[in-house]
Design brief:
Layout: E1 12-16, E2 35-40, E3 58-64, E4 76-77, E5 88-89, E6 102-115, E7 118-124, E8 133-139, H1 142-145, E9 164-166, H2 168-181, H3 185-194, E10 209-214, E11 217-224, E12 227-235
Parallel strand pairs: 9-12
Antiparallel strand pairs: 1-2, 1-8, 2-7, 3-6, 3-8, 4-5, 6-7, 10-11, 11-12
Length: about 240
């Protein structure tokens, strides 16, 4: 029997600190302070479906690249690790522009919660956009998933980290936000920027400012000699419908 098409139904949705694609780590686990929740959707939000999951420290999350799926696939990709200049086959990359827009990510399982009638998995080390549809969850098995003699092709290890500092004003706002919300904002910003989230094609000598959204905040930083300086942390204005 041949299969001509397959339909997936989301089993859950991601609630993430990342509200836009810019700033999301290029791989999971690089920013350990990045946290989120996986909310299971009906009819899959049954506690018995998670029985035994609490014994695993990490999970494989299979998800949909929902913001790029309408753009179609590309047979070759310019990976950021190659400076965005050299083309590689799509199947040799983890690009979002795939024949089927499926992604996978390994995350740390922090907790399982039942809250206000919702079943939630608290996860960390994520590289997932807010509202990402999830199609499957599997436990991470160290004895099978760690391959000691594996090779990493053109991206064997993460690149060098960039130094990150804060102005006194930005640091004070981070500390105030952390006290109010209980979120590790300063550490999250530091870990994200240390990976240099700027596009690979950008002239890295271009001294300009950049911005990104985390939770309900706008973060701005600039390039200075020796690294990045975070100079503004500002609450986003609420969207008011006409």
């Amino acid at each position: 029997m041949s299969i001509t098409s397959v339909t997936f139904e989301p089993i859950g949705i991601i609630h993430s600190c990342f509200r836009q694609k810019f700033g999301i780590p290029r791989q999971p686990g690089l920013v350990r302070a990045a946290r989120g929740q996986l909310e299971l959707l009906p009819p899959y939000n049954r506690r018995e479906a998670l029985t035994g999951l609490e014994g695993f420290s990490h999970l494989w999350i299979h998800f949909i690249f929902h913001q790029t799926m309408d753009e179609g696939w590309r047979p070759t990709i310019r990976p950021p690790r190659l400076g965005g200049k050299k083309r590689i086959g799509v199947f040799a990359t983890r690009s979002t522009h795939r024949p089927n827009p499926l992604g996978m990510s390994v995350v740390r399982l922090e907790n399982i919660l039942e809250q206000d009638g919702r079943l939630l998995l608290e996860i960390s080390g994520i590289d997932l956009l807010d509202q990402t549809p999830v199609v499957d969850i599997k436990p991470y098995l160290p004895y099978a998933d760690i391959i000691s003699d594996a090779s990493g092709g053109f991206a064997p290890e993460p690149g060098a980290q960039t130094a990150v500092t804060f102005t006194e004003e930005a640091l004070a706002i981070c500390q105030q936000y952390e006290q109010q919300q209980g979120r590790q904002l300063q550490l999250l910003i530091q870990q994200i920027l240390s990976q240099d989230p700027r596009p690979a094609y950008l002239n890295k000598n271009n001294e300009r400012s950049f911005g990104m959204s985390l939770w309900d905040l706008n973060i701005r930083w600039r390039i200075e000699t020796g690294g990045f300086v975070v100079y503004e942390v500002q609450q986003q204005e609420p969207c008011i419908s006409p």
